[in-house]
Design goal:
Length: 500
Amino acid sequence: MSTRTIAGQALLPEVEAFLSKDIHGAAIGGREVFASNGDTFDTHDPGTGETLATVANMQPDDVEQAVAAAQEAFDKADWARLPANERGVHLMRLADAVEQHRLVITQIESLDCGKIAAQAEEDVQNFIDTIRYFCNLAQGLSLDTAIPVAGHEASVVRHAWGPCGFIVPWNFPFLLCGWGIGPAMAAGNTCVVKPAEDTPLSTLYVAHLAKEIGIPDGVINVIPGVGEVTGAALSKNRNLRRMSFTGSPEVGRMVARECGQNLIPVKLELGGKGAAVVFDDVDIPDAADKLAQAITFHTGQVCCDATRWLVQKSIYDDFVNTAVERLKAVQIGHPLGQATQMGPVVSDTQHKRVLGYLEKGTAAGAETVLAGGAAKVEGCDGGHYVKPALLAGTLDNLAAREEIFGPVAYLAPFSDESEGIRLANDTDYGLANSVWSSDLARCKRVASLFEAGNGWINSHNVVVHGVPYAGVKKSGMGGGVVSLETLLDYYRSISVIRPL
Ligand code: NAD
């Protein structure tokens, strides 16, 4: 098969073969299954707007079938009853298989998501690390823990729950798939994953790899489809034992409502409107550089990004001028382009959303510091490109309060430490903020006073396996990922006690 070249990169033969399928079906019980009514949808390369693949749009009865397959694998495939080390062999094989196919998955993810190849490759590595991390963690966990109490013999015994549902957004499809299925599978659960309709391909690919390396059928089921149909059906399903939703607060509320009706525990990992609090003793070029990188990382489509830059008054002008220069120099291009530093946003909808916020923000009184707007990339006319933008003004502006999900930061000055903390916390969201200063004691003090799940020091977007990553307020509920707490969520516990 001849392979195409996109933005100077030849597609790998495996990628070309994968994309050439007529229709990508769901992975249910180890089989490829198409929608019961034959419905499909197309997924696009955000860098060119061209169709990449046609995918099955799974219907409510197909979703039932996927959950039933996950239940059957849980009951009959012995997945849950395997000792942790034997399950671990499967998980390590999965991590190894992804490692062997690293470049294939990187290209698929880069094309489907519009993520520059180097960042897509980091996501693939993160998936591998996540699977290995939870696999190792599960080996050392006692599932029958004695509790010393007077006059009784007592213990807590842990079991896997059963079939777990995962609804995933489009910004980190492969990485978030790993964050979901890694701990769930390590604990012995089975999974039904609903990827976002903009980016289903890497998740479908991993289901195909899982089949190839002998993960028992039905342990990983992937049901592509549009949110209102497939996602809604999964959130209503009564046979799931747990649900994990990552996405917008609006949809998160709907999913939580459905799970609440069925009393199914749900964890929500939602949006953010993070702040960077920059003090006047900071190294200005270094901080401006890092924050410019943070806001352009995956074209600003990152839940924990620093989208409000709060800068101490005495350095405000210097800092802003330096940041503007950095942002103007960012090389925009197709995600597979060697020189590209910032790719497109994921879709036409997202393109309109970003430009709409620039318009609405300025109409509501924000000052334009760096105009941003639509960008053109040669040879990629249908691509969804935007330039980085900076707005400034009071923090009651909707561009300072609502999640834009593009390379747009909102600037505001502050006078002292208490005002910096107050402004950072003056938001409905609570995912991640950062503090920037050469005074480490101040950094630690300020970071711990953020009303957020994560406080970062002289850096932004710092997520490390072993350190809980979660949101508070409108950024999440009952959640937390990549840590021991996450693994424990995937066991139900029973207290066993007898009077002596
Ligand atoms: P979204 O809420 O629109 O969609 C997320 C998922 O929900 C998709 O799979 C979608 O198909 C599905 N969905 C849509 N409507 C549904 C419905 N009615 N019922 C059930 N499922 C439905 O979010 P998005 O636009 O894909 O992603 C961006 C959002 O995700 C941002 O708010 C971002 O901050 C958030 N996010 C949060 C984290 C985190 O860890 N906290 C990580 C990544 C993204």
